[in-house]
Amino acid sequence: MMLDAHQTEKTDAPLVARQYAVAEHKVRSRKDGSAVQADGIETDWAALVLRVRDHQDRAAFAALFRHFAPRVKAFLMKSGADATLAEECAQDVMATLWQKAALFDPSRASVATWVFTIARNRRIDALRKARRPEPEDLPWGPEPEPDQAEALEVQQDTERLGVALAQLPEKQRALIERAFYGDLSHSEIAAETGLPLGTIKSRIRLALERLRQQMS
Amino acid sequence: MMTTIRHHLSEQLLTAYAAGELPEAFNLVVATHVSLCDDCRARLETLDALGGALLETADATPMSEDSLAACLDRIDGLSQATSRSPMRRHGIFPAPLADYVGGGVNKVKWRNLGMGVKQAILPTGKDASARLLYIPGGQAVPDHGHRGLELTLVLQGAFRDETDRFGPGDIEIADEAMQHTPVAEHGEVCICLAATDAPLKFNAIIPRLAQPFLRI
Q: B134 in contact with A at a CB cutoff of 8 Å?
């Protein structure tokens, strides 16, 4: 998890370009044999959120629910919620997705990342009862028609990250999970994971620079 | 201001903020710094993406059978947001801080500490405390406990201590092992946002007298 501001870039393995709109179904196996799906590989989740936004599309919402609600529930239970509370909160998170679909910007974050931030905030309310002020919002998007090339890049970044995570030794992956699920004492251990975080940071940094230029 | 920030958030603090594991007072300082610092914003959004990838690739916990139907019922008639909530910066206060103060510097309810030094404690959860500090040039920055982790973010002016100079946007991260005596630079009044997880110790005593007492 080396993410120092002045870190040198890692070279990431090249990734075959994939169409933004439709992607093939693909399930890979982890070492223990359990199926694992990486973000965006099987379905274009961003397109579904845009359908929720533009058409209040309940079928699109149902597909998002089936995929993300069980993951949010698992995330909340790993953070210490019991099954009942986790299920309630997962429902809240999905209802928030419906309500805030217009604020989702596929050129800035993948759906998984966006859902993660909603779930995290719900968890803070439910379990920690603490406020978590957000950074100042920057005056960008979401555009009515998001830049497809940028959205594709964001998707690919998250896919690569998902693939790299799934390939980590179980022990190393567990440490990163614990840092995110509330075990702070392990947050510093995961250095040098080989995760393509440098690429993602560079892309976001460039987008911020472009935005600052437009603002000035 | 963007390009002159030299002192950034640590990996641990950013990860803990992304995970939603920090006390409110620290959340406020992190959110305020990120509002000023595109580097840390890019690092933070990268960690959000890692959270998203973890959510995506983690094992799912099945939702109960009727949960989708219940959620579809629930979103019926739920209004969808069309724009972000207007969080505005006020002068030197980025939006998250302006939100706590209820405006800009002129809204701060300062309390005199003597020697022209003033402070205002901000309303946060009790597991850590946040305060604004107003330090005329040449005066020492009041110690704020220093028995735990202490964050000091410069909003205006600058201070120096044995380690370095800290200007607008810079954040100093100090722990109890650190012995330092920050002093405001001559010129513009130095205004800082500080947070500590140590109990509130500092009272309306002249800071210079109080310091040896509190073992800076």
A: no
Judge whether B76 lies within some domain.
Answer: no
Instruction: Report ipTM for this prediction.
Output: 0.86
Q: What is the pLDDT of residues B81-107, one digit of tens each?
A: 877 766 789 999 999 999 999 999 999
pTM score, whole prediction: 0.84
Q: What's the structural domain count of chain B?
A: 1
Measured between beta carbons, the chain B residues lying within 8 angstroms of A95 are: 71, 74-75, 78
The token pair at B94 is: 């980025």
Q: Look at A200 and B100 and tell me if their CB atoms are within 8 Å.
A: no
Report CB contact under 8 Å: B80, A133. Answer: no
pLDDT tens digits, B110-157: 999 988 999 999 999 888 899 999 999 999 887 655 567 889 999 999
- pLDDT of res. B141: 82
Q: What is the structure's pLDDT at B167? A: 96
pLDDT in single tens digits along all 216 residues of chain A: 445 444 433 334 333 333 333 333 333 444 443 444 444 445 789 999 999 999 999 999 999 999 999 999 999 998 888 999 999 999 999 999 999 999 998 888 999 999 999 999 999 888 877 789 999 988 765 555 667 888 888 888 888 898 998 888 888 888 888 888 766 555 454 455 678 888 889 989 998 998 888 877
3-class secondary structure for A127-162? HHCCCCCCCCCCCCCCCCCCCHHHHHHHHHHHHHHH
Question: Which whole-number Å values give the CA distances from A30 to A38, A48, A61, in the listed order?
Answer: 11, 27, 28
Q: Residues B88, B93, B96, B97: is their CA dihedral positive or negative?
A: negative
Tell me the DSSP string of A52-107.
HHHH--HHHHHHHHHHHHHHHHHHHHHTT--HHHHHHHHHHHHHHHHHTGGG--TT
Q: For domain A5-215, is the CATH number 2.60.40.3500?
A: no
Ramachandran angles phi, psi of A118, nearest 5°:
-65, -45
CA distance A165 to A12: 14
Is B73 a domain residue?
no
Say whether residue A12 is in contact with chain B using an 8 A CB cutoff. Answer: no
Q: Using alpha carbons, select from B155, B41, B171 the residue that is nearest to residue B104.
A: B155
User: Does residue B41 sit at the A interface (CB-CB below 8 Å)?
Assistant: yes
Amino acid at A120: R
Look up the CATH number of the domain holding residue B28.
Answer: 2.60.120.10
Radius of gyration of chain B (CA): 20
